[in-house]
Amino acid sequence: METGWWSNYSNISVHHCTWPGVRCSSAGSVIEIDLSGHGLNGSITPQIGALSKLKCLNLSSNNLRGELPSSLGNLAQMAVLDVSYNEILSIPLEIEKMENLVSLNLTRNLIVHLPSAIGLLTNLTHLIMNSNPLRSIIPPQIWNLKKLMTLHLGNCQLYVSIPPNIGKLKSLVNLNLSNNMLVGPIPSSVNNLTNLASLDLYGNQLNGFIPQEIGRLTNLVTLDLSSNMLLGLLHFAPETFIGNKDLCGSIQGFRPCPSSPNVIFILFRRYRAKALKSDPSPTKNGDLFYIWNFDGKIAFEDIIKATEDFDIKYCIGTGGYGSVYRAILPSGKKYDTRTLSSSTDFVSTIVACS
Fold first, then answer.
1. Coil, strand or helix at 325
2. Cα dihedral 230, 185, 132, 123 in deg (nearest 10)
3. Which terms are listed as keywords in the entry (predicted)?
4. What are phi and psi of 350, to 5 degrees?
5. CA–CA distance from 137 to each of 95, 207, 289 (Å)?
6. What is the mean predicted confidence (pLDDT) over 285-290?
């Protein structure tokens, strides 16, 4: 950081409040520095700790290396710290002194350890650490962050299981633990995360039954459980559909759906190769997980049998979004089933065509 910024201005008389990326208070104190994407390299100078009034520091998308300086502990008024997309190696223990820190973004660095001092940042609402080689369990100090609304630990090489303590973070709105090596079941304590709007557990090795508590999270908008080894149906409480005037179905208070077209959803999942070892029977077009059927009139076994496990001879068309298969049930009812590429996880639709 001592190249490309301070050195360019330190020997000239222009007031520092006019420098690019610098914002000052009316008293002339530096309160914000935004030098994201400025091609800075080297390490962050310890002199940054002299800016005692600094509230926002954004050094993201540069080539900064090494440790964050311990002098950051002097920045007691700091609210936002973003050093994402660099090559930072570690976080100093002195970070615990940044008691007003609200947002900490460390995405895509080389951090291998989260110090216990993080747990003392009681005002922290956003902790974003995707793509750091933590290679550990989910850091337990996180459970002390009661105000946390965003927790992103995707692609951090986390292992073991998701602990029940996740339920302590009752303010969580966005939780991303995707692309790790987490195993075991999803803890039922997710029921405590009543503010949760987005839950991303994609690409782990989670197993067991999906806790029905997830279906009771009425604020949940985005849910990704794909590329795991989970089992079971997922029922959402009727109140999760309230306020959608165009929905229909058998839920109390909804108008009946028209007889045609009748749309139901299938959730498919491809197991990893090692998961398939437990079931030697091959499948032709991916593994069926279950049908999410709102009126209960059709079971997935009927579709599988009618198409002989989505045999190619039942394919009536293909396109950029996958293939369409026609199933004729014993009742004479025809269903067109659209599936996406069998190499991915997807949600598919079935439409009753007669």
1. strand
2. 130
3. ATP-binding, Glycoprotein, Leucine-rich repeat, Membrane, Nucleotide-binding, Receptor, Repeat, Signal, Transmembrane, Transmembrane helix
4. -115, 130
5. 21, 17, 29
6. 38
3-state secondary structure of 17: helix
Q: How many CA atoms lie within 13 A of 86 on its CB side?
A: 30
* Per-residue tokens: 164: 């029940």
Measured distance CA(183)–CA(191) in Å, rounded? 19
Residues with Cβ within 8 Å of residue 330, at least 6 apart in sequence: 302
Q: What stretch of H or E contains 223?
A: strand 222-224
β-bridge partners, 326: 336
- Collapsed DSSP state (helix, strand, coil) of residue 323: strand
- The C-alpha atoms of residue 21 and residue 203 are separated, in whole angstroms, by 38
263-352 in CATH: which number? 3.30.200
Q: Per DSSP, what are the bridge partners of residue 313?
A: none
Cβ-Cβ contacts under 8 Å for 272 (sequence gap 6 or more): 205, 227, 229
HSE toward the beta carbon, residue 337, CA cutoff 13 A? 30
* Dihedral (CA of 336, 341, 342, 347) sign: negative
For position 333, what pLDDT does the model report?
A: 74
Q: Are strands 63-67 and 87-90 parallel, antiparallel or unpaired?
A: parallel
- Please state the φ and ψ torsions of residue 41, each to the nearest 5 degrees: -140, 175
Q: Mean pLDDT across the stretch 262-279?
A: 38
Asked if residue 256 has a cis previous peptide bond (ω within 30° of 0), the answer is: no
Task: Of 120, 119, 117, 156, give the one whose Cα is nearest residue 138.
Answer: 156
State the DSSP code for 145. -
Confidence class of residue 155 from pLDDT cuts 50, 70 and 90? very high
Residue 201 has pLDDT above 60, yes or no: yes
Cα gap 309→291, rounded to integer Å: 14
Other C-beta atoms lying within 10 Å of the C-beta of residue 121: 23
Q: How long, in residues, is the chain?
A: 354
CATH, domain range 6-240: 3.80.10.10
The fraction of the chain above a pLDDT of 90, given in percent, is 57
What is the C-alpha R_g of the chain?
26
> Which part of the chain is CATH 3.30.200?
263-352
* Cis previous bond, 258, omega within 30: no
Closest CA to 299 of 278, 327, 322, 321: 327
